[in-house]
Amino acid sequence: MYRQGWWESNEETDKGLRRVCIYRYNGYLPQGDKGRRRSKFVLHRREKPNGIKRSKHYVVDTPHTSKAVLDANVHSISYTLSRNQAVIVEYVPDEETDMFQIGRSSEMPIDFVVMDTVAGEKTGGVDKSMQSTISRFACRILVDRKPPYQARVFAAGFDSSRNIFLGEKASKWEENGVIDGLTTNGVLLLHVKGSFVGGDAKALPWREVSVNGGMYTMRESRSAPQKGKKMENESNVLGDGSMIDLCGVTLLWRTAEGLEKSPMRRDIEQMVDIVNAGRPQCPVGLNTLVVGRKTNSIERQPYVYLKCGHVQGFHEWGLKKGAESKERTCPICLTIGPFVALSMSLEAAAYSDFGPLSHAFFPCGHMVSEKTAMYWANMPIPHGTKGLQAECPYCATPLEVYTCVHLYYENVKKFITSEQEFKMTNVHHLPNRFSFCSIIPGK
């Protein structure tokens, strides 16, 4: 069974559930989550298995007219060696796994439709002048139907005819009698060492995943013809906090076990209520500020000086008339720096702990806990053809040298400073059971 969204836990059916999120959309698509185009996607065990496994391979002269390619009931991968020669690999049904596919195409074989997004774009719009770098059939994930419900990611997905074609120019090779290859822009995978929950995990190097699920070092550039070095001791099995990059969008994978220990949306809202209960005040306008409410008036909307962290209301003190610079002078400490509105970080799956909302990313102003801020500030996200950079997980804005800032509220005497204090305050806390988290543009 394949479902989307949240539902109550069922011990027999929900143990294998996983969730993937788009690192960028802050919990929802601006145009609304509809059908297979969503900001997060929940994987649930299907009523009937649709997994596949490798069967046999053979050489043909005309791959597009071969029986396996023409038969819509047979999954096959065609590796083109030359104009007149190709290797066809056939796959047979696997009753032990479920398959889920991700890509830019809206064809039915794609379970999770993704698209390129402009980093930091508030409306979530697509830059139509930019040619997409995401493959129409980017990758596939096979999940075991039995415990421990391992999930594996593979480059390339099957089209409506159940075929995958690797062209003559695609990187491909044969090893121990088995042919394998890479897609044009590649599928990258990052694992973390340690637990994502708690924010103490460290990012391991990005690797490229092959069509057969092999792990390789990154190519010199995304579309370089030469494959990287094979990493024999590394696996394409997804773990809590693993990230998949599809050259234009990045996915964050969360497991049921990890999300049991992670905050939910209502937990974040209660953290905001704790801040508002302290009645933070603007020292210039002397008006009470209200954090995290969409209906905020300009007088109540909190802003932060990103160089010093002082939170104030909107005012023009310290603004140089006629100056093009967005920098202002903080009236409390006289530090000069950017002055931006504080924004709520609503996608709970990107939080690593229950800490107070004490920090904001620089330069976008999204509020998070200290450990969450430090985690993402040290997470390298693929950028362009071969670059890596830290980004805000809620809007994909590249983080600057400072990466984040500690927030200082006027008139707020005490923050809850630990997960234990939060749980003592939140007596109705029920942890989120399951989730497959968000996608981040890597542009």
From TrEMBL:
Q: Give the matching PANTHER family.
A: E3 UBIQUITIN-PROTEIN LIGASE PELLINO-RELATED (PTHR12098), PROTEIN PELLINO (PTHR12098:SF2)
UniProt similarity note: Belongs to the pellino family.
Domain Pellino RING spans what residues? 275-407
Any single biological process term in GO: protein polyubiquitination
Q: What is the species listed in this Swiss-Prot or TrEMBL entry?
A: Allacma fusca
This protein is called Protein pellino
Record domain Pellino FHA: where: 20-271
Report the transmembrane regions from the record. none
